[in-house]
């Protein structure tokens, strides 16, 4: 009688332990590049499936017929990774936070211009909030990609309020 009970307890413990391992990395540091822009970021695990991403990057802004400027972007984004257990059950990677997630990106873009092809263009300070859905996948030990989409709200201090879309495809390296 003791052996079956011990085996059942051991099996339940192993099952619980394996499900607990399907959680986010404690902290990961990345550099990423997209079609337009480059970013340095950190994802800090807050709970098994919740992370806080902090990010600094440079992005372009275009003025039709006048050229472009490159400005900094500072982002804080809580992310909820919702399919880690399902990926693990299918034998798919969950390392380096590989999974699907919902996030809310809070962006601040100062009016600082890092470089421009037209010295008459000035930066525009803005704040935005963009809810989004995206995927993150590791395709080797350290390389990853992200793809996602979202639609939100943007406030430019000099010009008013606008809708803002976030469509991104990035490739990166995790340290």
Compact description:
This protein is mainly β and 175 residues long. Helices cover 14% and strands 58% of the residues.
General description of the model:
A hairpin with a 3-residue loop joins β1 (27-34) and β2. The protein is built from two helices and nine strands. The chain has helices at 2-20, 84-89; strands spanning 27-34, 38-47, 50-63, 67-81, 99-109, 115-116, 126-138, 143-156, 160-174. The model is unreliable at 9-20 (pLDDT under 50). Strands 1-2-3-4-5-7-8-9 form an eight-stranded antiparallel β-barrel. The protein is mainly beta and 175 residues long.
Radius of gyration computed on alpha carbons: 21 Å
Order of helices and strands: HEEEEHEEEEE
Distance between the termini: 50 Å
SS-based class: mainly beta
Uncertain segments: 9-20
Helix count equals: 2
- Amount of beta strand: over 45%
Mean pLDDT: 87
Strand order in the largest sheet: 1-2-3-4-5-7-8-9
Assembly context of the chains: single chain
Biggest sheet descriptor: 8 strands, antiparallel, barrel
User: Shape, please?
Assistant: elongated
């Amino acid at each position: 009688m003791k052996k079956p009970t011990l085996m059942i307890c051991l099996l339940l413990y192993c099952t619980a332990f394996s499900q607990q391992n399907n959680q986010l990395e404690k902290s990961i540091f990345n550099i990423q590049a997209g079609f337009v822009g480059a970013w340095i970021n950190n994802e800090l695990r807050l709970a098994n499936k919740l992370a806080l991403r902090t990010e600094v990057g440079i992005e372009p802004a275009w003025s039709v017929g006048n050229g472009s400027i490159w400005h900094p972007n500072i982002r804080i984004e809580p992310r909820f990774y919702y399919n880690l257990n399902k990926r693990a059950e299918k034998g798919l990677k969950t390392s380096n936070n590989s999974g699907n997630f919902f996030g809310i990106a809070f962006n601040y873009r100062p009016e600082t211009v890092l470089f421009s092809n037209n010295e008459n263009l000035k930066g525009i300070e803005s704040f935005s909030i963009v809810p989004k859905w995206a995927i993150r996948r590791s395709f080797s030990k350290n390389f990853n990609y992200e793809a996602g989409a979202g639609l939100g709200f943007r406030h430019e201090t000099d010009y008013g309020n606008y809708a803002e879309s976030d469509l991104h495809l990035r490739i990166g390296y995790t340290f």
